Amino acid sequence: MKTIGILKNTVQDYAWGSLTAIPELLGRPVTGSPQAELWMGAHPKAPSQVFHDGRWESLIQVIEAHPADVLGTEAAGKFGAKLPYLFKVLAAAKPLSIQAHPNAHQAKEGFARENRLGISLTASNRNYKDENHKPECICALSRFWGMDGFRGISEITRYLESLCKGLLDEEILLAKSRPDAIGLKRLFQSLLTMPMEKKTAVIRSAVSRAGSMGNSDPVFGWIQRLHAEYPGDLGVLFPALLNLFRLEPGQALYLASGEPHAYLDGLGIELMANSDNVLRGGLTSKHLDVPELLNVLTFREQAPSVILPGKRSAAEWVYETPAAEFCLSVISVTPELYWVSPEKRSAEILLCTQGQLVLDSGPGDDPVHLVEGVSVVVPASIRRYHLYGSGVCYKASLPGPAGFVLDRRSAES
After folding, report:
1. Taken in order 306, 244, 265, 10, is the CA torsion positive or negative?
2. What is the spatial distance between Cα 321 and Cα 412, in angstroms, rounded to a whole number?
3. pLDDT digits (tens, 9 = 90+) for 158-208
């Protein structure tokens, strides 16, 4: 593959998705069904189709047939004939499940174990869909609410005392007597495994007391909202256990393997290692595997750290993370300034989110026009390309050198 390819992507219709956000981005009519995630990449569950050699082909098959052309020699040697990242648009109108993702060792071990047990990849009780870990970055396109990482034990016990005093006294005392990772794990395990009768009483108490506290703290408001969506689910208590966060457009978070989290509301760009492995802990009707979740979770107090993009040039800003599999950046060009890619790079996926852009890879190839919602894959075999017009796109790539900006007024004078 030696040309830029337009992508045709799958939209996942999970129940928590927005009715309008993704159709509006793609310029499609609203269907009346929730549309939760737009997947751009080469995951076996929903690979993108790329227009190649006059026909639509699976991006997986194109990469397998031409790994050096698409990924570049270095990336193909490191990751094999596989795109190492998965690019998404995520549109949450309702809260997602509380979840965590395994590290690389846990994913390989879990995937092999469930294969030996003969659990189908599509079975509802399947935890491991692949053998990859799943660090991820979420970047807000709208105001975006979520939960990430455990609060400090003193903060957790203070909330639990205000919400469930008399019902969770033993659990609170346990946490206070062991204010470390072991105590946090014991508290979390005791909450997830409590008898149904006690769980019902705890939920009833938390929702009632949260309601009586009004708008004094967003934790109490989210407990009530989660209960409205998932009555009877212990996940309604999690705003007291995990850190609430609110991202404004352009802000991002990086989530490492093992971090408990849940996205609650908003539209965002998501970039992650190429995996769909999820261990759930609540706010869902899907399969829960508490022992495996406890095995995967990292039990440490950890406040979310908001990432602001660093300026690489007058047109490109990058979200720095420790991930080896991906790098997220945003490119904004004007009629006066256009962006030029670096020569040495791997496969990149670009998604236009605003305006009209043109990708020009030089003599012999027709320019590719992008409007809002259109995405393309640019293979490593394209030595260098220019991005011009007036608009914004998000770029998924491997960590690497920056592009640069040319001032068209200077170039033409």
Report:
1. positive
2. 37
3. 999 999 999 999 999 989 999 999 999 999 999 999 999 999 999 999 999
**Residue 255: strand, helix, or coil:** strand
Please list the helix, strand and coil fractions of the chain in percent, rounded to the nearest 5, in that order.
30, 30, 40
CA atoms within 13 A on the CB side of 160: 26
- On whether the CB atoms of residues 97 and 286 are closer than 8 A, the answer is yes
- Helices 153-164 and 181-192 pack at an angle, to 10 degrees, of 30
Q: 380 with 72: CB under 8 angstroms?
A: yes
Which tokens in the block code for residue 257? 């393997």
Give strand pairing partners of 359: 368, 387
pLDDT digits (tens, 9 = 90+) for 358-382: 999 877 778 999 999 999 999 999 9
Tokens read off for 136: 């991820």
Cα–chain center distance at 118 = 29
Judge whether 397 and 313 are in contact, CB under 8 Å. no
Q: List, by residue number, the catalytic residues.
A: 280
